[in-house]
Amino acid sequence: MADAILLVMLVAATLYAVLGGADFGAGLVEPFIGSEGQRRVDIAIAPVWEANHVWLVLLATLSFVAFPAVYAVVTGYLHIPLLLVLLGIVARGTAFTFRHYDPASGTTRSGYTLAFRVGSFLTPLFLGLTLAATASGKLTRTPSDFYTGYVAPWNSWFGWATGAFVCALFAFEGAALLAAEHPTRAGALPYVRLARNTHLLTIALGAHVFVAAYCEQLAWLEELLHSPLALASLAAASLLVPLVAYGFRRGRPWLVRLATGGQSAAVLLGFFGAQHPVLVRMQSGDLTIANAAAPAETQSALLWAIAIGLSLIVPGIVYLTYVYKGPRPDGRRATR
Fold first, then answer.
1. More exposed terminus of the chain, fewer Cβ within 10 Å: N or C?
2. What is 2-325's CATH number?
3. Beta strand segments in the chain, E
4. Which of 48, 8, 10, 23 has the alpha carbon at shortest distance from 318?
5. In the chain, what are the domain boundaries?
6. What is the pLDDT of residues 8-67, one digit of tens each?
7. pLDDT tens digits for range 266-285
């Protein structure tokens, strides 16, 4: 049962990284796509973008109920980066809403745009820092001081490298989203250069993550190199690189969407493949699926709740996406 719940959590994390990541990425690349950038970002991510946060809420809820020890350690010792993640989400969401609907222009609108872009940067950066801290092995239940307990686990070379990588990955997803939402009539998709640059940056920063892990002698890297699942996932992500390029060059929006999403999913699966069965690496006793799971009765009830909840959530999100992104009565694709 714990493995089944963990699988649902992995799917939720993947959906948030792919769908929510593309929305955050659109905010990251907005300054680089010219005067039409803001309007095109609004069209690409409105109005279904807020629905993507349901996967983050689901992930936090499942962690709290199914693996309470993990939830307590992560929210307790990593409360600083998590607070910045939440502040980024709130700032970005409110700024986007006011910018989208406020008829005022000038300084006020510029302030909304700045908050939207800063929030789009803060959230992926500190999500990456939080994720890296769970794999670094620097968390401790008995810290000697505030810095050791609440800052050192995430304030490391490996942590910042992972945060930068997540930002680059989301930026690439954002470029792919904008290209797929605004295809040309024939030939290559728009924003090819932006997508190529962010893709190359993502690959370079991914290599930087491995260099940082090697220099810090992290057990996570050693486990990754011995995990068939992790290695297969990273190989799949690498094999999808030319497929993404082909989709851009040939003007295939759905191929770009699927290949980009597949890359992000493979990267996330590879990260957790190197962790399994460990959930959080710590200095004294890792938290694993076996020693961190809730009682069997709780897991059983939770699985029923997951089944019922997803049966309500998934159709609603699919219908919402179809209404606002599907074909219109005149046969053209909806853009708002």
1. C
2. 1.20.1630.10
3. 278-280, 287-288
4. 48
5. 2-325
6. 999 999 989 888 888 888 889 888 887 676 777 777 776 566 678 888 898 999 999 999
7. 999 999 888 888 899 998 88
